[in-house]
Specification:
- By secondary structure, the chain is an alpha+beta fold.
- The protein has 26 helices and 12 strands.
- A hairpin with a 2-residue loop joins strand 6 and strand 7.
- It starts with a strand and ends in a 10-residue tail after the last helix.
Length: 517
């Protein structure tokens, strides 16, 4: 989970050279276009390995090696697809890939293995990081986008899919046997599908979780932490964080992200989902200012009394720094707060933390929040849509995503075969709880106007956090603003751009399921 500036997302490429992809890629030299001049696919695949991709210090720290795989090769698409067939059909073609300008160099290096496997050349289309959304949207509107493929923040899926800017991918997924059943439902439905059509392949698959400092929490609790029972409710987290606020000078009871805009929205959604909150009814009328949303905001406001200094201006970067720097005793954040906290070069709290199962709310449900994340899509005007799909399949394959997690670079896998792998769980502390939780995940719908909706809600919640308005005023104001945004994006006019019945299955996937504990 990482944001750059207002709109851009960390791409896979930003961490590619650090993972060793550049070094691995250099083995095959320059551009190889003709299928008969390409290396044996197995030799390329053998190089996409723990020993080549995962940092040496992390391999040493956790005893990682190629004979202890952190993925299932039978589910790893790059090891099951017929590369000779790919070459026979598409070798010599070109794919234009939109990337953040800062990532262009590492992207070129990171895609060398794909070019060697497929014979497809990838040309990068750099877009300034801080204006990625606006530039991509402008190109889509022009009807002649300069790129075939792009990866972007998953809430934007509605903005790009509803107007017809994206290419349907189901036929390619069927033809090339993409293992869609290996994705957790929440990612497959919300990052892959829009109005019943497949437009994306899940890329960075986030979830928000609750993390505890073992030393401080065990001191207050008087014994070891139980991941299920030590903090079973948000009422208990409020009580615990108040006590933890007094444990040591300079350490706050809880870390919160409550900056204006989407940061406050995400924190509020996280808690409110446990109270049973849904953002809309079946007619797309905002209902989040009802009892469940109010309960979540009241809990957030109670927690804020015990929160880190500056929490009302804190987003992910500030929260990450406070957690990894040992300045908060508990933390509500993304899953990578657990993985990165294990790494000595990133963290000052190694071996002194644990990620727990989501606390519950009386009368609510167990609904861990799938918030943020990113997806991979093909432009409707792509000159080489099939080649673009294959490139995105390579970038999102299970083995590469597993090694992203092993490298703790913030790019998260969404595969059951990865998070349920015991070798992966040994190098990613939250993975077991994370994987269990995803079977019950809550997610906001992918709507046109999702970003301004998140901004509008969060701006009002932040005003409540800093005491300018009441919780009720905040949510009522937000509901009115969201209704206006929805209207301006074509809702309530008899032909909604999103069919609620199509979106509903992804909004909460835990209905009727047994709890994992």
């Amino acid at each position: 989970m990482e944001f750059r500036g207002r709109l851009s997302r960390r791409s896979f490429m930003a961490s590619a050279s650090a993972m060793g992809i550049a070094a691995t890629g250099s083995t095959w030299g320059g551009k190889l276009l003709a299928a008969n001049h390409l290396p044996d696919p197995q030799s390329v695949l053998d190089g996409i390995s723990i020993s080549q991709y995962v940092r040496a210090d992390y391999r040493d720290l956790y005893g990682m090696s190629d004979d202890k795989p952190i993925w299932d090769s039978s589910k790893d698409w790059i090891r099951t697809v017929d590369w000779e067939k790919v070459r026979s059909e598409l070798s010599g073609t070109t794919v234009r890939f939109a990337v953040g300008a800062a990532d262009a160099e590492s992207a070129a290096e990171g895609l060398v293995p794909f070019e060697a496997l497929s014979g497809i050349t990838v040309e990068l289309v750099p877009i300034p990081d801080d204006s990625f959304y606006d530039k991509a949207l402008a190109e889509f509107i022009s009807g002649n986008a300069s790129f075939d493929a792009l990866q972007f923040f998953s809430p934007w899926l509605g903005d790009f899919a509803a107007p017809g800017f994206l290419y349907p991918l189901q036929d390619f997924a069927d033809k090339w046997n993409l293992p869609l059943d290996d994705f957790y439902d929440t990612y497959r439905l919300n990052y892959g599908y829009f109005n019943g059509q497949m437009y994306g392949i899940p890329f960075d698959c986030d979830i928000q979780m609750v993390h505890l400092r073992k030393g401080y929490v065990e001191q207050v609790l008087g014994g070891p932490i139980d991941k299920v029972n030590s903090v079973p409710t948000y009422d208990e987290l409020i009580r615990l964080s108040a006590e933890l606020n007094q444990v040591e000078p300079g350490v706050s009871g809880v870390g919160l992200m409550a900056a204006p805009g989407f940061w406050s929205t995400y924190s509020w959604e996280h808690v409110s989902a446990q109270a049973g909150m849904m953002l809309f009814d079946e007619n797309w009328e905002p209902i989040f200012n009802g009892d469940a949303g109010m309960k979540g905001l009241e809990i957030l406001l109670a927690l804020s009394k015990n929160a880190n200094e500056g929490h009302a201006g804190a987003g992910w970067p500030e929260n990450r720094a406070a957690w990894l720097g040992g300045q908060v005793a508990t933390n509500i954040s993304w899953q990578d707060s657990g993985t990165q906290a294990m790494r000595p070069d990133q963290s000052q709290i190694v071996d002194d933390f644990v990620t727990i199962y989501e606390p519950r709310i009386s009368g609510g449900r167990f609904a861990p929040p799938n918030i943020a994340g990113s997806t991979s899509c093909v432009s409707a005007s792509a000159q080489n849509p099939e080649g673009a799909f294959l490139m995105l399949g390579f970038l999102t394959t299970a083995s590469i995503m597993a090694m992203n997690e092993a490298n703790a670079n913030g790019v998260a896998p969404g595969y059951k075969s990865v998070l349920e792998n015991e070798n992966l769980q040994a190098v990613s502390q939250p993975a077991k709880v994370w994987g269990d939780s995803l079977h019950h995940a809550w997610c906001s719908p992918r709507l046109p106007g999702a970003f301004p909706i998140e901004q509008a809600i969060g701006n009002e919640i932040n005003r409540a956090v800093v005491g300018q308005i009441s919780a009720k005023e905040a949510l009522d104001n937000a509901a009115a603003a969201v209704k206006q945004i929805m209207s301006s994006n074509g809702f309530y006019q008899g032909n909604d751009p999103v069919d609620y019945a199509q979106a509903a299955p992804g909004l909460y996937v835990g209905e009727g399921k047994d709890l994992p504990f």
